[in-house]
Amino acid sequence: MFFFNLSLPEFLALFTAASAVVVALYLLDRSRRQNTVFALRFWNAARKPVESTSRRRIRQWPSLLLQLASIACLLLAISQLRIGSPDTSSRDHVLLIDTSSWMAATDAGAPLIEQARRQALAYVKVIPPTDRVMVAYADTMATPATAFEMNRRKVEEAIRAARPGNAALDLGTAFDFARRAQSRGAKRSGEIVFAGAGRQIQRDGSGGFEAPANLRVLAVSGAPENTGIRKIGLRRSTSEPDLWHIFISVRNYGRAANPTDLAIQFGGSPSGSRQLRVAPGAETEASFELRTRAAGMLEARIRTRGDAFPADDRALLELPPQPAVPVVVCGADPALLKPLLDSHPFVQATYKPGPQCPQEPADAIVVADRVLPNPMPKRVVLLDPPAGAPLAATPNYAAVTLDRWTTGHPIAAGLHTRDFRIEAARTLQLGSGDSAIASSSVGPVIGARPGLVVFGFHPMRSALRYELATPLLFANILRWLAPDSLRIAGVYASAAGSVTVPLGSEAETAKVEVKGDDGVVLPHSVHGQSIRFFSAKPGTVRVRTAEREQVFSMTLPDVPESLWTAPSTARRGVPRAREWGSSSRDIWYWLAILGGLGLLIEWLLFAPAGPRGAPVLQAPGRPAEEAPLRRSA
């Protein structure tokens, strides 16, 4: 036996103090007694104190002993007296509950998480009550739900609160967390217990981690059949602005091949369907085409027989709108630009010949052919403008050779053509906030500032009209003036976790913005021509560069392909009580009950029934209403 809350000297000090108080109360002898008299002539005699000549002594030994025994039982309960050895009184266990997405699958009509919770509760019931337990939820990361707790109610509440998430299970990370928790916070390390299915992220083909030596596995039985949507990718066509290319990947995680019906809907209307047959453990892809410029919700859904994991049978994505960029060409001969602008699929051009440019909508890009708009639009391209235009050109024309592009500017991106002659061009005068796009030996001939591009010549009346760089130059100008309208959009559905996004070039990674649906910037890293970011929770992530925007709807559950097999050295199943060997047993509640019963029995047996002294006598023939007189002397 040993005390858990108090030491033996502390218990003896408390018991001695309590016993001294009780014994002193029993030795206290009062000299005044309560007497009952029947007439006033006895009143004065009753007022005289009764002299006590006897020695003070304890008259009710059984009552005193019963009270002292009851107090001792209550103090033993407070000290938490335990039967057993203190050496084996406390172990610290870490209970890892699999809360990955796969635990939402059903087997025999019940979710796998129910089996894991049931076995975890059974484990907690059989371990010694002196052992402490830490409950942690394991998916991609290990999240502690409790500290090392002896309170079984808190531990059981944390187990019952375990719910499947959308992330995959990473057992290596979970075991590393359990080892660190025991090494830092445990008094005496117990077991690391894993309760779950063990479908985990593949690592190096062999697990990639070492199982703990003190591992116990509470395996979830059953291998449910499942065929689910793995990922979805949508890319807008570069030649047809209203065309989306849709690619859907479907995987069979089960052991039997089942026919699978795949269908997509846009805005609630059917848009395509396929019937697939996916081999066990294999993955297949299906492609669709959807024509729309409007925004809307795209739904992909599969149906198969005997599917026990419906969470990955449906995916929902939001398609962004793709309005055409309005471009107004005005001036002396706007038809010269018609072949150039009409070939661009995302441009809606309007041509207005005349000596002046009429006022246009604020969202339009105005291309002024040798005229100066008044008032000046917010976004304008001036081709060989007259005097008084911004970035004022020299008055005289001269033959120049274009030999240099400012490739660091977005308008000149990808342009390398040089050493071609322009018969008549004027040199521009640039200010401190202006940028030179193309230059000759005598100065810049194409310049830009925010919302404005100026040519010192007419590109369609020079040798530039025959160069392959001309369509790319104008595409860059339109993209720079209307970046949000001309970004190449891609929409993807995937699971939360780590995502790698390929980009077109290393130059595109210079200005990358990664934001969640709440506007918070997510950290990312650049690897060559791709970037990598991580999102731990389901949601929408937007990756924006200077040229494109890609939207990732990270709402699909991440179902790993690898099934972990526990090593042969690991203990399995809920242990029996005798497996723990000798251990202490808590008996404080019995001591508390015994102490309370002792006090109750003492009060019933030895409490006074009425006032001490002579009994009340009534004289014969005396009326009942004449009560005797009482006086305390």
Chain-wise SSE layout:
Blueprint: E1 2-3, H1 8-27, E2 34-37, H2 43-47, H3 61-78, E3 81-83, E4 92-98, E5 106-107, E6 110-111, H4 112-126, E7 132-138, E8 142-144, H5 152-160, H6 171-185, E9 189-196, E10 199-200, E11 215-219, E12 227-236, E13 243-252, E14 258-266, E15 269-278, E16 283-291, E17 296-303, E18 314-319, E19 325-331, H7 338-342, E20 347-353, E21 365-369, E22 380-383, E23 398-405, E24 420-425, E25 435-440, E26 443-449, E27 452-455, H8 469-481, E28 488-495, E29 497-502, E30 513-516, E31 524-527, E32 530-535, E33 539-544, E34 548-556, E35 562-563, E36 571-572, E37 585-586, H9 588-606, E38 629-632
Parallel strand pairs: 4-7, 4-9, 9-11, 11-36, 19-20, 19-21, 21-22, 22-27, 28-34
Antiparallel strand pairs: 1-3, 2-38, 3-37, 5-6, 7-8, 10-35, 12-13, 12-28, 13-16, 14-15, 14-17, 17-18, 23-24, 23-25, 25-26, 26-27, 29-32, 30-33, 31-32, 33-34
Helix pairs in contact: 1-3, 3-9, 4-5
